[in-house]
Amino acid sequence: MEKLTGLKAINTAVFISGTGNNLKNLIKFSKTKKNSISINLIISNTNKAKGLKYADQFKIKKKIFNFQNTIITEQNILALLKKEKIKFICLAGFMRILSKNFIKKFNGKIINIHPSLLPKYKGLDTHERAISNKDQFAGCTVHYVSAKLDSGKIIMQKQIKITREDNSTTLAKKVLKQELKLYPMAIMKILINL
């Protein structure tokens, strides 16, 4: 993988709704030598997101938005992103669908990680669905965000074998391990070309 030497790290916001495993991993990645992003802002749609603790731990600005009125909320988020000079967005377990208008404003600069081999199993319960369909493989996908759920152009995927012993919990752990490797790799891949 080409090293991003001499390039200024891109101001990045991470959007979360949950535990923040991928967020923590991206923060650690942003502090390595070959990083290409600087995480300046963490946005959540709920104050119950456990991942918000990493904002305090790593002294990163955080903001919680309730999405009661999506249009107004997105306008407020866009205003904040502009103020913080954010040029790139990583979704990491963010449980809201962003509007076409919002995505257009960040044309090609919003990516997401999803715990399945897209286009299979968009949405929730991906591991349960893979097991109940007796799939041989599961995995994760980093993709560009489009207005349709989990449907944007695929950047990279990582496949793992489902064993007979696997249940949705063990499979989720195995897939998460791969997510933590895949997300930084995908970021490096696309930011070289930005």
Short key terms for the protein model shown above:
194 residues; alpha/beta; Rossmann fold; 7-stranded mixed β-sheet; 6 helices; 23% strand; globular; disordered N terminus
Give the SSE layout.
Layout: E1 10-16, H1 21-30, E2 37-44, H2 53-57, E3 61-64, H3 70-83, E4 88-92, H4 100-105, E5 110-114, H5 126-132, E6 137-144, E7 154-161, H6 168-192
Parallel strand pairs: 1-2, 1-4, 2-3, 4-5
Antiparallel strand pairs: 5-6, 6-7
Walk me through what this model shows.
With 194 residues, the protein is an alpha/beta fold. The chain has one domain (10-192): Formyl transferase, N-terminal domain (Rossmann fold), CATH 3.40.50. The chain is 35% helix and 23% strand. It has helices spanning 21-30, 53-57, 70-83, 100-105, 126-132, 168-192, and strands at 10-16, 37-44, 61-64, 88-92, 110-114, 137-144, 154-161. It has a 7-stranded mixed beta sheet with strand order 3-2-1-4-5-6-7, covered by helices on one side.
Give a brief description.
It is built from 6 helices and 7 strands.
SS content category: alpha/beta
The portion of residues forming beta strands comes to 15-25%
Largest sheet: 7 strands, mixed
The third-level CATH topology is Rossmann fold
